[in-house]
Amino acid sequence: MRGRVLQDEGASTRALPRNEAPESLTENQAARRERVIRAAMALGGRGGYEAVQMRDVAADASVALGTIYRYFTSKDHLLAASMVDWSADLRRRVAERPPTDPDPADRMVEVIRRATRTMERQPSLAAALVTACSAHDPGVVACQREVTATIKEVLAAPIADLDPERRDGVVMVLAHVWHSVNLEWVNGAKTVGQVGEELESTARLLLAEA
């Protein structure tokens, strides 16, 4: 398989359609794209950002190297798309099992803890995804917007009963803090535990006497 991947890499990929939207793919194409994302996440989970090399992703996903570039313009785009999947999975899990505490702050803290628990379990992968989502790449920018929108939905869910104006303000501030502390963590300025603590303290401050 490694040999086939290297041979495919030598062929020109310029004639291939680039950055195909997931919703435009056939069932087989979507399955290949999903295998590529899963392979990238597995490599990132084992060795972090630097371990995600496109040749290795292609080999592990059993696709030609050129196939990856049908869907992703770069490694950062691929990992950012993986972050889209991660945030969508978090949204699904929160929707399936919403927090039930009567206090809005406690509900929000429960959601935050669920999110940071995943970071604690797979810190190398989480750091790789955050790093990629900070890249200046057109494909990444589109993923950034999707991730941000999804995270805002996740944060809005436990406080849906609040006044809409206040709810939207809380979500906006928490989303900004979420982004900021994640970058600090990736850069070594904070631990995962400190990320969770800062998010929780911000949530409690914003939702005091909600």
Compile the SSE list and pairings.
Blueprint: H1 2-10, H2 27-47, H3 54-61, H4 65-71, H5 75-96, H6 104-121, H7 123-132, H8 138-156, H9 164-186, H10 192-206
Overview in brief:
The protein is mainly α and 210 residues long.
Defining traits:
single chain, 210 residues, mainly alpha, Tetracycline Repressor, domain 2, 72% helix, 0% strand, disordered N terminus
Structure in words:
The protein is mainly α. It has two domains: 2-72, Tetracycline Repressor, domain 2; 76-206, Orthogonal Bundle (Tetracycline Repressor, domain 2). It contains ten helices and no strands. The chain has helices at residues 2-10, 27-47, 54-61, 65-71, 75-96, 104-121, 123-132, 138-156, 164-186, 192-206. The longest helix is centred in the C-terminal third of the chain and has 23 residues, at 164-186. The chain is globular, with a radius of gyration of 19 Å.
Give the terminus-to-terminus CA distance.
58 Å
Shape assignment = globular
> Radius of gyration over alpha carbons?
19 Å
Unreliable residue stretches: 1-18
What is the CATH topology classification name of the largest domain?
Tetracycline Repressor, domain 2
CATH superfamily of the largest domain: Tetracycline Repressor, domain 2
> How much helicity do the residues have?
over 70%
Number of domains: 2
Q: How many β-strand runs?
A: 0
The count of helical stretches stands at: 10
